[in-house]
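Listing S7. Sequence submitted for prediction.
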Amino acid sequence: MPITVSDPRLVPLAAKVEAGERLSIDDGLMLFETSDLLGVGSMANAANRRLNSDRVLFSANQHINPTNVCILRKTCAFCSFARTPKEDGAYVRTLEEVFLEAEVASDAPTREFHIVGGLHPKLRLSYYLELFRGLKERHPGVHIKALTAVEIAHLARIEKTSTRDVLVAMKDAGVVALPGGGAEVFGPAVRAEIADRKLMADDWLRIHREAHELGIYSNCTMLYGHVETMRDRIDHLAMLRELQDESGGFLTYIPLAYHPDNNELGKELGRVGTATTGMDDLKNIAVGRLFLDNIPHVKTHWPMVTPFLSQIALEFGCDDVEGTVVYERVYHEAGAETPMSMSYGALVRFIKAAGKIPVERNTLYETMRTFDTDDSIPVELNAASGGAQSPPDLVQLVGTGRA
């Protein structure tokens, strides 16, 4: 499909996209600043089709949040999930409680446990390692994607060890990938305002670099729609792109929409009851696809921006959809009014209704099942595909400098 733009300033950018050339920082700023949303979407759609054709990936996953107790409760102004230890609603799951919650996977096509939570002052690394091992023992076919860079740094401080050692222990216990949370926006002025004591940008990037060096893949994110400028956004994306050039370890980029309800930042900004606009949500998907030319996938997080907008995002450069989730707590604490889960069948129908080919993947983006657009019966990959499509071995890439 030809690229069409109405803003003449986008014409040279469209030529770059058609030629497969990398966009500059100034190009990225132009994409964020233009009001030609359809033009930006047209470019992003072309870039995505070149990479992923009409395939749209989804996962059968289950979110697990072991605790919402967090030492940063008073300083992360944008967070609605965290609690102090004695605050109403504070909780800590025992291992057996988590295992009981995870039993949903026994009767569902679950392929991933997505595990994140608060920075509890007393939960030790041993708790998490027992949790991972227990889940793997009970559900050996389910991948574990667990703990943000912020949580890993917190555990390293508690254990008086290095973040690399924490990552090694996590990998040995069964973790195959890290979620991308905690990045927020890397700009120091923004972090000082919304998350004063949170992990700094250089440390977030370092921990993901260490994970990639160890063969642990990860996702990457940006929280948008609060106090950041357009320059803050593109600088953030540039840092992600630079690390991906170096390590090749990011699987997908996920722009995360800020929700202003039930947190201090929303009150300070006078934004309670208002969320990001549909235009900004789609713009962040599209710019992510265009600027992050070395990250294979861009995900829309339907619990944050609604399934309806996520469906439209599939024409704005997006090829990856948040999965079944089962029970989403973090964003619903911040006022999200979307469902807390979506069934496997609903996800397939959701993607097919957009005229796309639904493809179930696992945590490592290996293809597990493909659905024909006019047939609801799953079509297994044929023998010519060589089975599951795996990413290249990350340790080998880092070791040879080709990542």
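Caption to Listing S7: primary sequence and predicted structure tokens for the chain studied. The chain has 16 helices and twelve strands. Residues 328-336, 377-390, 396-403 have pLDDT under 50 and may be disordered.
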